[in-house]
């Protein structure tokens, strides 16, 4: 199972990556806007921090425009994955870029049928948005489980990249549902390490250690 950081904040990405188990990064236009920096500059810097797929999203809504936007992004680094929205133009772009050997992440997936379409288009990743489905009272993790079962049934090699992950429970549920990748904010990633019994256990070990006679 792969862990990606869902962020365009380079210090957040660095802090998580330093631990040594981050496999990639996802960004989106909202995250780039939040960073307050230029898109190309941020993406370029991320490629120097994490050696793995880095999703950079196009914002054009037509196929030709998406292809134009993808060109300079692909040129930044071989690890750049082009993120396209789940629209007809996005899927046409996914087919074209995949044929060129460029990895594509189809984003804003909210239904199994959309995931199947993206897989048929040769997407390297599909991004089901678990949290946003939960927000409207639907079961985001159930959709990931369905996608996992159907991809296995048809032998699709598109990876399921669970996105819109809001908490540790989502990460556990995404793993159980068969997600290949979970992308999460740094805050969620760091929380995965924590358990109060781990903290209590460390405290007790260190306390007991004080009574161990020291060799002279
Ligand atoms: O990167 C896409 C996705 O992870 C966004 O999450 O929290 O804005 O629904 P969120």
UniProtKB/TrEMBL annotation:
Coiled coil: none annotated. GO terms for biological process: carbohydrate metabolic process; pentose-phosphate shunt. Pathway: Carbohydrate degradation; pentose phosphate pathway; D-glyceraldehyde 3-phosphate and beta-D-fructose 6-phosphate from D-ribose 5-phosphate and D-xylulose 5-phosphate (non-oxidative stage): step 2/3. Its EC number is 2.2.1.2. It comes from the Bacteria. It is found in: Cytoplasm. Its main location: cytoplasm. CDD domains: Transaldolase_FSA. It is an enzyme of class 2 (transferase). The active site is at 83 (schiff-base intermediate with substrate). It catalyses: D-sedoheptulose 7-phosphate + D-glyceraldehyde 3-phosphate = D-erythrose 4-phosphate + beta-D-fructose 6-phosphate. Transaldolase is important for the balance of metabolites in the pentose-phosphate pathway. Belongs to the transaldolase family. Type 3B subfamily. This is Probable transaldolase.
């Amino acid at each position: 199972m792969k862990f990606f950081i869902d962020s365009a904040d380079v210090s957040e990405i660095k802090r998580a990556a330093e631990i040594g188990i981050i496999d990639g990064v996802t960004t989106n236009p909202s995250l780039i806007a939040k960073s307050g920096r230029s898109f190309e500059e941020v993406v370029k810097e991320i490629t120097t921090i994490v050696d793995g797929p880095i999703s950079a999203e196009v914002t054009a809504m037509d196929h030709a425009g998406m292809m134009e936007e993808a060109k300079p992004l692909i040129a930044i680094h071989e690890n750049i994955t082009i993120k396209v929205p789940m629209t007809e133009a996005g899927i046409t772009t996914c087919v074209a870029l995949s044929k060129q050997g460029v990895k594509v992440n189809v984003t804003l997936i909210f239904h199994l049928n959309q995931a199947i379409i993206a897989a048929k288009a040769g997407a390297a990743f599909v991004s089901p948005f678990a949290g946003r489905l939960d927000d409207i009272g639907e079961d985001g993790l159930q959709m990931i489980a369905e996608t996992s079962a159907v991809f296995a049934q048809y032998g699709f090699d598109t990876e399921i990249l669970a996105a819109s992950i809001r908490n540790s429970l989502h990460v556990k549920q995404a793993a159980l549902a068969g997600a290949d990748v979970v992308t999460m904010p740094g805050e969620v990633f760091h929380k995965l390490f924590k358990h109060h019994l781990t903290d209590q256990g460390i405290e007790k070990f260190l306390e007991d250690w004080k009574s161990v006679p020291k060799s002279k």
